[in-house]
Amino acid sequence: MTPKQVLAGALLAASLAAAWPATAADKASALLKDTNGNAVGKIELTDTPKGVLMRLELTGVPAGEHAFHVHEIGKCEPPDFKSAGAHFNPDSHKHGLMNAQGPHAGDMPNLHVPEGGKLSLEVLNPMVTLRCGTGVA
Fold it and tell me: Does pTM top 0.85 for this prediction?
C-alpha cells in the first residue's frame, strides 16, 4: 500500500472513530491526520434515509489519486492505520465499485486531489449507516 493509499484509506476510518457512538446518532465529525499526525482536513458525516452523506475538506494532501474507504473498526492509529481493520464488508462482496460481484459496503470513489492539495467533496454512500452494527438495506 502506498503512502497515498494509506492516508486516504485511513481518512474515513479516522472519521468513524468519532462517528460510531454507543447510541445512534445522525451526525458525526472528525479531524483527519496523515501518517505523521499532521492535520490534513476534516469530515462531517450525516446519516440520511438513503445512506451516509460525507462532506470532506482536505488541505495539504499530496496531489494525485487516493483510495477512499470505510473500514470495519472505528480506530485509526498512525503510522500505518492497520488498527482500522479491513474495508467494511458485512455482505462479503468483492472489492471495487466496478466489480460485477462487488462492491464492499465500504468502497468509495477514489479521491483526485489537485495541485495545491485542497479538495472539497460531498459524496453519499448508500451502503452504510452511522447506527452501530447495522447497514443500509
Answer: no
